[in-house]
């Protein structure tokens, strides 16, 4: 599923998200000057019925809050939602969610509204977060939920940009092999509980924590961090890196 997410995310990277589906931060210029150690992130992961945001649905969402390099273990979110379409076979194989099971999940509009409140003005972060952001945007429009902030932090891109600052094992990992689980393993993070939204959100938060520490990112600004992640995605996709 992560390989499929990577392909779908690459198709979305570099595309402008529709302006009606996202919202700027209040005082955005000031926020971009905020030091990373004082910034709040929600590291998120989704499970979906497929990989097409306008057609497919979110069936699970999880978020883990970080303040700078610290994971706030008491500030987490998880929900499972009823889809308007049954899951595709790949999603069933990866997540083990059968159509009969998803039919008993929570109302998607209520769950998404609760998650939007949980996120607030925090920076949404994730592994290949462009795909997650596209699904959240489509779901916000479908269910009448307040849009998410348009600035997102791609942890995959940040890893690629910071490789030269990482321990030797992490720095030596080939780009083609550097999926979430491989990067976690080189940081000696246990991946046994991953493969669902909650497990992958925690795994991504732990990887982001290691990147911020080893990359000495605490005193950078948020703008610097976004630029680094965009530079990493430029290397990955051959797309034009965004500037801030």
UniProtKB/TrEMBL annotation:
Q: Which domain of life is it from?
A: Bacteria
| UniProt keyword annotations, A-Z | Exonuclease, Hydrolase, Nuclease
Q: Which SUPFAM superfamilies match?
A: Ribonuclease H-like
Task: Select a single GO molecular function from the record's annotations and give it.
Answer: nucleic acid binding
Q: Name one GO cellular component term.
A: cytosol
Gene Ontology biological process: DNA metabolic process
SMART domains named among the record's database cross-references: EXOIII
Q: Does the keyword DNA-binding apply?
A: no
Residues annotated as domain Exonuclease: 40-217
Protein name per Swiss-Prot or TrEMBL: Exonulcease, putative
What organism is listed for this UniProt entry?
Nitratidesulfovibrio vulgaris (strain ATCC 29579 / DSM 644 / CCUG 34227 / NCIMB 8303 / VKM B-1760 / Hildenborough) (Desulfovibrio vulgaris)
Q: What is the lineage of its organism?
A: Bacteria, Pseudomonadati, Thermodesulfobacteriota, Desulfovibrionia, Desulfovibrionales
